[in-house]
Design a protein that fits this description.
By secondary structure, the protein is of the alpha+beta class. It is built from 5 helices and 8 strands; from the N terminus they run αααααββββββββ. The protein starts with a helix and ends with a strand.
Length: about 220
């Protein structure tokens, strides 16, 4: 604990005293430019930059904050520690803006778990056997990303109304549910509903994201 506190204090002091005279050009930072400028090769480092690039593309972290830390790290002469300066500096400076960045390595294809529910007489009830669809667009963080832009996947809730989508790339999605739900046995009603989802989840993101889809009687 003392060692971590000492490291944070050292990085904070370095940031406070960082020279401001040199200006390095930054044009639309993405995963490719971050990797090249910070000279990263380790998978954990690349995944962290993937996470930062996704937040940038989605406008969820200030561009000027990332730009300034990128320039700061680039000025360091120690070749293999540029990423370390960038990451530690970003954690410290983002916290000042109430953005808590992860200290570990985020999962770039997290698992989404959730449940479909409805409310009957003020009580939430799980909805088994409902078809759930995840659809939306992937956030492209790299010019080299040639994979599918539109994402769509379907599953069915289990006996407890729960569902799982695995290996979901960062992006903007809608999770919708539709199916017959037993209101009072043996009466069932067609219900539907949806909720929005943004990945990565709000910082600091975890590897598993939890959502709830609330269903109500379908109009048609």
């Amino acid at each position: 604990m003392f060692r971590r506190s000492l490291m944070v204090a050292v990085f904070a002091a370095l940031l406070a005293g960082a020279p401001q005279t040199e200006v390095l050009a930054v044009e639309g930072l993405d995963l490719d430019s971050l990797r090249g400028g910070l000279r990263t090769a380790e998978p954990d480092e690349v995944d962290y930059l993937h996470y930062v690039a996704a937040l940038l593309k989605q406008g969820r972290i200030p561009q000027e904050l990332v730009d300034s830390l990128y320039r700061y790290a680039r000025r360091k002469n120690v070749r293999h520690k540029k990423f370390t300066y960038f990451k530690q500096g970003l954690i410290i400076q983002a916290a000042k803006q109430r953005i808590i960045m992860p200290r570990g390595t985020p999962d770039v294809t997290p698992t989404v778990v959730g449940r479909a529910v409805t409310e009957i007489l003020g009580i939430k009830k799980e909805c088994p056997g409902v078809e759930v669809t995840l659809s939306g667009t992937k956030t492209r963080t790299s010019k080299e990303d040639k994979g599918p832009f539109r994402i769509s996947s379907k599953t069915t809730t289990d006996a407890d109304g729960r569902f799982v989508f695995r290996d979901v790339p960062y992006g903007l999605y809608t999770i919708s549910g539709r199916g017959f739900v037993v209101v009072v046995a043996p009466v069932s009603v067609m219900m539907d509903g949806s909720t929005g989802l943004v990945l990565p989840n709000r910082p600091p993101s975890s590897d598993t994201v939890s959502v709830e889809v609330e269903l109500s009687p379908a109009v048609n």
